[in-house]
Structures are given as C-alpha cells and as structure tokens.
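Appendix B, Record 12. Input sequence as logged:
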Amino acid sequence: MSPKFKYRGNLADTTLPEMLHTIDRFRVPGVIEVRRGGLIKRVYIRDGYIIHASSTDREDSLGAYLMRAEILPRDALESVGRLRETSNKRLGALLIERGMLPPDEVFESIRNQIEAIVWSLFYWQDGEVTFGVGDLEKEEMVQIQLPIPRVIVQGIKSAPDAKPLVSRLGSKETLLEPCYEVEDLVETGLDRDDYKLLLRVNGSRTLYQLCGEGGRPPAESAKLLYAFQVLRLVRRRHGQAAGGGPLKITLGTSGDEMNK
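Logged structural output:
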C-alpha cells in the first residue's frame, strides 16, 4: 500500500468502533495499525469490508488457532513448521500439500483466525493507532469480506467491559430516538433479540429504562445501545435538556445490575 494520508490517535481517546464507522462512512481503503506493549495488529479495509488482519502475537497465528480449535495436534503442526523453515510456502499451502487438511477447511480456519484478530482489538482500551489511507496493493494474503457494520456490532458485543462504552452514552436520563432506514440494518447482523432492543428505542424511554428492561443483562443492553449510537441507528432526542446522573453498570459474578 502507498498511503496518501495517515491518521494518528489512541484507543483511549477514540474507540475502535468509532474509527471503523468513520472509515466505512467515507468508504476509504487503507490499513489500521494498532501498537501496544510491543505487539502490532493490522486490519486491512477496502470498499466497506475488512478483508484481512494480521498480528505479531504468536497466539494470533494460524497454528495457534488450529491447536486451540483442536483441528490439528501440536506434533503435526510442529512437523509442518519444520518444513516451513526450508520452504517459502505458507502454512495453509503446506497443510493442503501434505494432505493434512482440505482447501475448504484451510480457508475456513484462516477466516476464523482473521476474525479472532479483529475481535481481540475490541478488548484493547488503549494503544497507538495509525490509519494509512490509500489503495491496497495486491499482497500475498487470504482475503475475506466482513461488512464493517457487522464487525462493529459483534465486536462491541464481545467486549468484556461495558463501563468504558456506557460512559459514552450519556446520563441515565438520556432519551434516544431512532434515526435509521430499514436498509441500514441489512449488514449489521442484528439477531432477533438485538432488533427487539432497537425497536424499543422510541424517544420516550430513558437509557436507564432501556438497559433495565427487556430480559437481557443491563450491561449487554448498554453495549448494544452504544453500537446503535456508533452506527447512527439512534441518536439523542433533539431538544432534550441535560440532566440526571451518569449511567452506571455493575458487572457482578451472578449477573449484571444497573445502579440506581
């Protein structure tokens, strides 16, 4: 890639979902690079899709994924690893060549590995970020297509800590109103329960009510509402006066509770 512009920031100031939505909104191709504690993770984007991801963390490697998923045992992977030392071939190609996995299982495993790298970035609350804008050159990498809206929803849902996200929603008295067209929902991947929560946003229910009702843990509702806000499916009701205390979520061992 020959980047024409580079954005620099930190996940502590601007969250990954907000960055992804801005990139998707303007349909700019490029690479997000996040650095933290000596690790580097990259996410490749084109035409509103995440097409690839890479990581310097050995736990994010294809071999590590194949062992975690119990697809191949350690000794088999170590034998292929020795072959890689004398070959320029990638692990996936060697697995097919040696008859250890068929092509479809290799592709599916690589896809799952790439997705796992992307989801892992939603666990990071800090890290130096650069986004290099520019056309992606044809590189030797397996490409997939993950719609960015779906990545935002699934990534936020997988985030282990709701508190940093909840703090960006507003006070417990904040009123949200819908601002989407049905066509906007197609690539979000919302399931039936997610969609039910979205339908409950009507401009008259407070954040406290939306998170405390509906049958799901309040922290999970809060994360989804934040996803809706990032995707601009909902917004704060126009003309609403500021007021009320902050929305607080307590994550307990036996379930999530919302503080009054």
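The chain has two domains: 1-147, 161-258.
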